[in-house]
TrEMBL record, chain A:
Organism field: Chitinophaga jiangningensis
BP terms from Gene Ontology: cellular respiration
EC number per UniProt: 7.1.1.-
Function: NDH-1 shuttles electrons from NADH, via FMN and iron-sulfur (Fe-S) centers, to quinones in the respiratory chain.
Family from the record: Belongs to the complex I 51 kDa subunit family.
Name of one Pfam family that matches: Complex1_51K
Sample GO molecular function, one term: quinone binding
Identification of the protein by name: NADH-quinone oxidoreductase subunit F
PANTHER family for the chain: NADH DEHYDROGENASE [UBIQUINONE] FLAVOPROTEIN 1, MITOCHONDRIAL (PTHR11780:SF10), NADH-UBIQUINONE OXIDOREDUCTASE FLAVOPROTEIN 1 NDUFV1 (PTHR11780)
Database matches in InterPro entries: ComplexI_51kDa_subunit, NADH-UbQ_OxRdtase_51kDa_CS, NADH-UbQ_OxRdtase_suF, Nuo51_FMN-bd, Nuo51_FMN-bd_sf, Nuop51_4Fe4S-bd, Nuop51_4Fe4S-bd_sf
Keywords: 4Fe-4S, Flavoprotein, FMN, Iron, Iron-sulfur, Metal-binding, NAD, Quinone, Translocase
Membrane-crossing residue ranges in chain numbering: none
Automatic annotation (TrEMBL), chain B:
Domain 4Fe-4S His(Cys)3-ligated-type: 96-135
Superkingdom classification of source: Bacteria
Pfam family, one: NADH-G_4Fe-4S_3
Lineage of origin: Bacteria, Pseudomonadati, Bacteroidota, Chitinophagia, Chitinophagales
Localization per record: Membrane
Species per Swiss-Prot/TrEMBL record: Chitinophaga jiangningensis
Listed PANTHER family: NADH-UBIQUINONE OXIDOREDUCTASE 75 KDA SUBUNIT, MITOCHONDRIAL, RESPIRATORY NITRATE REDUCTASE
Keyword annotations of the record: 2Fe-2S, 4Fe-4S, Iron, Iron-sulfur, Membrane, Metal-binding, NAD, Translocase
The protein's name in its UniProt record: NADH dehydrogenase subunit G
Family per record: Belongs to the complex I 75 kDa subunit family.
Amino acid sequence: MGRKLLLENAHIEGIRYYDTYRRNGGYAAAEKALKSMGPEAVLEEVKKSGLRGRGGAGFPTGMKWSFIAKPEGVPRYLVCNADESEPGTFKDRYLMEFIPHLLIEGLLISSFTLGANACYIYIRGEYAWIPDILEQAIAEAKNNGWLGKNIQGTGFDLEIYVQRGAGAYICGEETALIESLEGKRGNPRIKPPFPAVKGLWQCPTVVNNVETLAAVVPIIKYGGDEYIKLGTGKSTGTKLISACGNINKPGVYEIEMNISVEEFIFSDEYCGGIRNGKRLKACIPGGSSVPVLPANLLLKTAKGETRMMTYESLADGGFATGSMLGSGGFIVMDEDQCIVKNTLTFARFYHHESCGQCSPCREGTGWMEKVLKNIETGKGKMSDIDLLWDIQRKIEGNTICPLGDAAAWPVAAAIRHFRDEFEWHVKNPEEAQRRNFGLAHYADPLPVAATV
Amino acid sequence: MAEEKKLFKVKIDNISVEVEPGTTILNAARGIGGDVVPPAMCYYSKLQGSGGKCRTCLVKVTKGSEADPRPMPKLVASCRTTVMDGMEVANITSPEVLEARKGIVEFLLINHPLDCPVCDQAGECDLQDLSYEHGAEGTRYEFKRRTFDKIDLGDHIQLHMTRCILCYRCVFTADQLTASREHGVLDRGDHSQISTYIQNNLDNDFIGNVIDVCPVGALTDKTARFKNRVWFLKPVDAHRNCDNPKCCGKVALWMRGDEVFRVTARKDQYGEVENWICDTCRFEKKDVKDWTIEGPRKIDRHSVISQGHYVNTVKPKDPLVEVLDGRQPKLLFDIHTQSEVNRPTIDLSKIDGPAHSDDFNKSQS
């Protein structure tokens, strides 16, 4: 059984409330950071822990924090990105709903490290009930002297504000989030300047995911050296995975990053295998925007090694034969699922969520959706598959923000790995309306490359 | 002694140029001029914050700088990327850039109505030039294009949103030139639109400039709509003493004969306005007596506008009289006395709205 750091106490009744949280060792890390460590020591500890951003990109958090500009007389801000809108990802919701004080403690330590006196939690509008939970927790923390002026007599001031988004996926992109927080239209900014130099109200800002900020608490509590012992290689510590799809036990799991994908899907401790005794066909390991992998490439890398639940192992082979850990939205598909339909669903999502600022994403996402819809409804042509490939290639990398890439990757991966299924849809338009392509050869062992 | 300013050495398509630090790649390329200048549909040097959206100006940075020679991993928007010392940029020498640009042009055109034959902007349209130079001849898009209703933004400006490419230039113009901005972008994705929320009038001293900055025919001058094609008009530099202190009064008049069909600001070779003009000059001074004419305006000879442009006003020598030994040629008839349609007594510019055959109908007038 893997060690849990974030969800250690999640089972305790009433952990949502301050008293219970405090009784179970809560705010001990904040006390340690504020009273005996000081900002530099905390930053060193986070750097040492090798913590990587849990929002999807996996950028080292300690490095991100050290980039923040520190001009005299200019306030700095910490923004917590709780705009979790990636289809398949629901880990932050779990954290905020059940252990809000863990996030608040994390925000307190991080703000202290960065020297920020105001901190914003930007939460997606659809999580309508969570701001109340957070605000209650903030009030409790304030009453107990963990927020407000002169926290615990250390002279450090911090206010945390909860801001609701209006339900736009694009506001999960850090600069769009900042624009939206300022009360403007949520369009991503053109970088540079990066938020670490000019962010919220043109002041240095750090934007971090909920899970990243919460993970700071165990790092301080147990120390960076202890944290780095968990996980493998550069994927240190634990990661929340929100598993869903055709599995027996969907839900949020905290894993140590040293288990294999196979273990995660099939062991009873985690997903508990595929539902109804079906066979595994494909999996999207990190939320809708990462490339989909067929069963054979998911369990073993192209080199024949076992694929692990780590940043590196999932990305092994690049996009040709690999994927990404992303935000940890683990979507499992069994043999009854249609990849074309699934790709269409994602394309429709990205078309709907494109902000419309830059032309490749604005026009390309809609075009891809229409072409995919034709293929799905039996009106497709063979040339449409190549057209899709060409469109996604012209979107990827040419846009302002990563939404264009996120729209292009699922389509690219679906065509790359499941071209047979697309062709079958085009060649058998009527049959494709009645039945699915099935598992076909997608779980067959990979051909072993001849060694010279 | 003033310290000598350090200049950055940049190489664009193997042409070296020295520019001041802080210059963008696009402006460095404009310093060189010619074919290496990337096209720009949304960038406008006079508007702060513009650019980066249309992605037509993407270039490849093959060498980051002298200090850090790594190439940039992605194509970058040259209008928003500042140069570094020793930077090497590939624009038209990079097949990757040309391919990407072709893709962008295709994206821009898939929802564009391509109604150039009835569009007032035709002939001076940035998108038309761009697709002519960088686009493919056919389209692979087989679906219905998005459409919008035409909206009147006040008395003088009409918005034809279907043609819009969402460059945001008009938004920046209203922000930076006028007292208050009343229009903006609503909705998102490919259904986002320029709008005034609840059918507001755009009523502002300088709001007419949005017509000039619009790269396509989405914002048009209602006082000149459908009056004439731009290539039949003769652009003339003119000025007047404008009462508005912020207005320079220097304009280009678009004339045919003595009629002023349209007043616009003067534009430079990149289609950018040189000096902003006020709405009074633009919409209300349509009489040649209001203006002091400076002379014909120089138009790039590649432009279709130069086709109808009079280089000089000296009438060419008519050889017919010499051939006929000094006798005047005898005309069989004057076309205007015969034609049912063309009535030179009617000033086209004075007709309210587009000319219609009723306007020439003798029995009605």
